[in-house]
Amino acid sequence: xxxxxxxxxxxxxxxxxxxxxxxxxxxxxxxxxxxxxxxxxxxxxxxxxxxxxxxxxxxxxxxxxxxxxxxxxxxxxxxxxxxxxxxxxxxxxxxxxxxxxxxxxxxxxxxxxxxxxxxxxxxxxxxxxxxxxxxxxxxxxxxxxxxxxxxxxxxxxxxxxxxxxxxxxxxxxxxxxxxxxxxxxxxxxxxxxxxxxxxxxxxxxxxxxxxxxxxxxxxxxxxxxxxxxxxxxxxxxxxxxxxxxxxxxxxxxxxxxxxxxxxxxxxxxxxxxxxxxxxxxxxxxxxxxxxxxxxxxxxxxxxxxxxxxxxxxxxxxxxxxxxxxxxxxxxxxxxxxxxxxxxxxxxxxxxxxxxxxxxxxxxxxxxxxxxxxxxxxxxxxxxxxxxxxxxxxxxxxxxxxxxxxxxxxxxxxxxxxxxxxxxxxxxxxxxxxxxxxxxxxxxxxxxxxxxxxxxxxxxxxxxxxxxxxxxxxxxxxxxxxxxxxxxxxxxxxxxxxxxxxxxxxxxxxxxxxxxxxxxxxxxxxxxxxxxxxxxx
Length: 536
Known about the structure:
about 525 residues; Rossmann fold
C-alpha cells in the first residue's frame, strides 16, 4: 500500500491486494514535507498513499484508480532542465492534479509554461498573498472572502509565464504566480506549502482539493480502519497461527488488541528481554498484557545473546541490523517450538517504513528500523503488519476505537532496538546501567511536574565522551548524559520541548548526584528536521 523498502520474499501476501485502490496519490519528489501532505489528506478523512514517481505508469494508475494526484515539492530545479519528470501517465489520467512548489513548476513546464530561477525573488519563510479574481475553485469561496492569504514559501524557482489555459489564483509582492489553476483540466498549482502549519488555511485547501475537487469520500476513520484491517488479517492468516512481537509500546499494544479481535486464540504474544530495556520495562509489559489480553505471555530472556552479538559494534546502522537479526532468530526458534506458527506479527507503522526506505529516488534513507530495514533477506515467517499504513496519531485513534486505556495510548514511544540506540557508540553493560538510572530520573521528574503528557517523547542519551567535573575537592572525568524531549503529532516532524529551566535544573542535579559516573548533563535543542528524534 504505502511506499515500502525492498522486503524479504516473505512479505505479506495481503499487501498486494490491499494496494489495489487509493483515493489519492501523493508523488514524492523528495520534499521534506511530503509526509505532511499525506497527513493533511488523511486528516480530511481521505485515504492516500505516498509513492515514488518512477513507480507510476499507466498500468499502475489503472490498477490504483486514484481520484486525484498531488505532486510534492522537492530539491530539484526545473529551471536547470535536469529535474525529475512527472510521469506522463499522470497528466493523461484525466483526474484532478495539485502541484505544490516543485510540483507546480513541473506542471507549468509540462503544459507549455516557463519556469526560471527566482534570483532575488526567492522566498524562504512567511509571506502574504492576495487572491486574484475569485481565486479559482480551489482557493475561492470561503478563502476568497478575506482577499489575502498567509502562507509559507520555500523556493528558488518560479513560474514566469503561465501555461495556456491557466489563470493566476494568487500572487505575492515578489512572486506574480503564487498559485494557478485550469478549471477545465482540473489542474492546480501552489508555489507555497499548504501542508505546513505556517500556512493557516493550508489544511482547508488540501481538504478542499481532496473532498470537493476530487470528490473523495471521507471514509478514513478509526472505525473503518479497524474493520478493514480485521478483515484483511482474517483473509491473510486464515486458520494459521500468529506470533506477535510485543514490546509494550503503543504500536505493538494496539497491534496485539487488533489481532486478537481478528483471530482470537490464534494469536501468541512474545516478549523478548534483549537486555536493552528501561528500568522496570519487563514487569510493566507483563502487567499490560494481562490487563489487555488476559492470556499468557511468552517471555524470553535473551539479554546475553544480544549483548554478545553487539560486542565491539559502534556503528548505528549495524547495531540496528544486528538487533533485527537477533529478534528474528528468536522468533523463528519460538515459532518452531510452538509447532505450527507461520506468521510474525509486528507493530510497524508508516514513519518506520518511510525512514527505513526513501519513497522516491530524490528522498534519502534516514535510518533502518529493526523491524523494517533490519529484517533478513530470507526468513521463514510471513509478516502480518496491520498498522503499517498508519501515522502515530492514527495508531492512537485506532487504539481508542479498540478501547485501550488512555494511559497505554499516551505512553511515550520506545525504539525497537531499545537503549542500544541511546547508548552512542559501543553498547556496554556499565553504560546501560548508567543510562537506565538517568533516564528513570528524567521521566520521574516529568511525571511529578505534570510534563510527561505535555511532550510526545522524552529520554536520556549516553554520550561516548567524558567531561571534567569536581566533587568536593576531587577531580572527575566521567561520561555525559544528554536529555531529549520533543513535541510532535506524527513524529515526521518534531519541535524540541521548551521545558522549564527549574525542571531541567532539578533533573541535572539529581542525575549528577545520584548516578555514579556522570559528570555533566546537557539538553538537546535540535528539532526534526534536521535532526531525528533518536540520536542514532
